[in-house]
Amino acid sequence: MTHLDRDELDEVVHGLFPGSAVDLRGTVVGRDLLERILAATHARMGRARFDLASFPEDARFGDVVFDGDVSFDQARFQRLASFVGARFAGNVSFREVRFARELSLHGVTVTGHAAFDRVSVGRDALFGEARFGRTVSFEAAEFHDFATFDGARFDGDATFRGCRFSRAVSFRKAEFGGLAGFEATRFWAGGYLAPVTVGRRLSLAGAWAGNGLDLTARDCPVDLRQVRVTGRLSVRLDCATADLEGATLRGPATVSGNGTARVTSLRGVDAEALELSAVDLSVCRFTGIRTPERLRLTGCLFATTPRGVRFAPHWPPLRWWTPRRTLADEHAWRGWSRPETDGTALQPLPRTTSQPAPRQASQPASQSAPQPTPHRLAHLYARLRAGVDDKATAADFAFGAMEMRRATSRSSGRWLLSLHWILSGYGLRMGRVLGWFVLLAAITAGSLLMGSTSHAARRSTAPRPPSAPIQISP
């Protein structure tokens, strides 16, 4: 339509009606042309194509209804682009669109699929209260100013893989019906996902936050593997499960739980100050964590030793484990298939041994996870106990460290540690010392009683010497 004269343009516009298709590909769409088209269609279009179109002035599509699929691929908006309250009955695509200034899709409704891959927004991007009925993709999108998705609802999967948020971004009270994927996303000024509701899984694997990250998740797995955070990290889990394997945290970090909140892995975590509060660590793997002495564990639940008598193919073949709190890594090393907790149902762990699992041919050696060994577990128990708030758990960790040292000691040292274990439980089981004392006292008392009884019996059976005659002097 750019090349039409006024009479030809009037003829085309007069031929439009509500629900008719609109094709403005490669067209320079000024304010006057856009207003005439919206007036002719009564703000209701069918199939609409704006690919490679240029909007040199404000583009206002507020409350417009699109009955068919809509495409703005590679379009250019030089000023404001507003779609407030617009409704898309089909699919909509904004791939590689450049918004020089503000973009507003506040309160829009998209029934079909939506694609915003590789878009660039120069100023504020507003998606608050938006409704997306199916999948949404923001892969490699760039937001150069403030962005908000507060109260947005994504009924299908939402992918933000590789996005760049140069300023603060907020997802407060956002709802994701399926996957919420933020893999390799960069939050230059911090991100706020508090609280969010996710139907399937929330993934921030490989994400980077330059000024902190605030996250609250309910009833879903949270993937924080390889995440890097500079500044404060705050994670609140409400009946959710989190995996922090390989995370790098350069600031104060807290992970707090509510209900059945659980952390499944801390392997390879490099944290300056990490505090875990009221979370289930019964299946959490710690092997490979850096600076475990900087970890603070408050009110956490750990696995326990198996209950009852256990048989083993090695010496001693019959063992009865005293109750103590353990790490899931020790369960994996000993081959216990299922960590036990006090009244908490857990998922089974894979049965492993002290030997490292074979790597796949395509997996690099640097990416192979460290396997738990007695030497590693001894250092892990000893360094973790300093950050445990519960004295009983700290004592159990000290006991576990001695158990691992006994497993790695040579024959002479192992015998001494075994004797120390048998007699006093490494000085941590006073009941065992009291039991040995009672047993020794009983043996001593029994020996004395038996000795005195046998001595009295020998005296009663010994023959008496003849008595001398009594002489009476006159």
What features would you describe in this structure?
- By secondary structure, the protein is of the alpha/beta class.
- The chain folds into 4 domains: 19-118; 146-262, no CATH class; 280-354 and 371-408, no CATH class; 417-445, no CATH class.
- The chain has 7 helices and 44 strands.
- The strands form 4 sheets. The protein has a 28-stranded parallel beta sheet that branches. It has a 12-stranded parallel beta sheet with strand order 1-3-7-11-15-19-23-27-30-33-36-38, with no helix packed on it.
- The N and C termini lie far apart (170 Å).
- Residues 342-367 have low confidence and may be disordered.
Features:
21% helix; 7 helices; alpha/beta; rod-shaped; twelve-stranded parallel β-sheet; 44 strands; single chain; 28-stranded parallel β-sheet; 474 residues
Rg, nearest Å:
37 Å
Alpha-carbon distance between the termini? 170 Å
User: Structural class of the helices, strands and pairings?
Assistant: alpha/beta
What gross morphology would you assign? rod-shaped
How many domains comprise the coordinates? Answer: 4
Determine the fraction of residues in helical runs and give it as a percent range. Answer: 10-25%
Mean pLDDT, nearest integer? 85
Q: What is the beta-strand fraction?
A: 25-35%
